[in-house]
Specification:
Blueprint: E1 2-4, H1 8-13, H2 15-21, H3 27-38, E2 43-49, E3 52-64, E4 68-78, H4 87-101, E5 107-109, H5 116-124
Parallel strand pairs: 4-5
Antiparallel strand pairs: 1-2, 2-3, 3-4
């Protein structure tokens, strides 16, 4: 079953899987950080099987000149011990339905250049590599 986290408990239950993708986030700050993101349109979905979270996705529905209205996936991870069981594919399919129901024309995501297995997965999900992502860090 896939559902969007609403309560702090639901958000926090996603932490062990999300931490596999975002190890820089602490358990203590996770729910608070997700709440800040939610104020900016972020949603957190989890796929649960037999009471265990197998996959999580953080995403936003947004609009820009490049893609129009689209669903942007900020975070997508399947539990390392549960991969190759179709959970990631189920999450992608759920995101496609959610995007269509929200009036989106596409799903868009970035993936780190070192994540070769993830790239294979995305290509197998009929996603295309359409651009490069550039970054300049700003002094604070």
């Amino acid at each position: 079953m896939i559902k969007i986290a609403v309560t702090d408990q639901e958000i926090q239950s996603c932490f062990p899987v999300m931490a596999q993708l975002r190890p820089m986030i602490s358990a203590d700050s996770f729910a608070k950080t997700v709440r800040v993101l939610m104020n900016e349109g972020y949603e957190l979905a989890s796929l649960t099987v037999n009471g265990a979270i197998k996959s999580v996705a953080g995403f936003k529905v947004q609009t820009n000149l490049f893609l129009g209205k689209h669903l942007y996936v900020e975070d997508l991870v399947t539990d390392v011990g549960s991969r190759s069981n179709g959970y990631g594919e189920q999450m992608i399919e759920w995101l496609k339905v959610y995007g269509k129901e929200s009036g989106c024309s596409a799903i868009h995501l970035d993936s780190g250049v070192q994540r070769h297995d993830a790239h294979k997965f995305y290509l197998n999900q009929e996603m295309k590599i359409i651009c490069y992502h550039f970054l300049t860090e700003l002094d604070s």
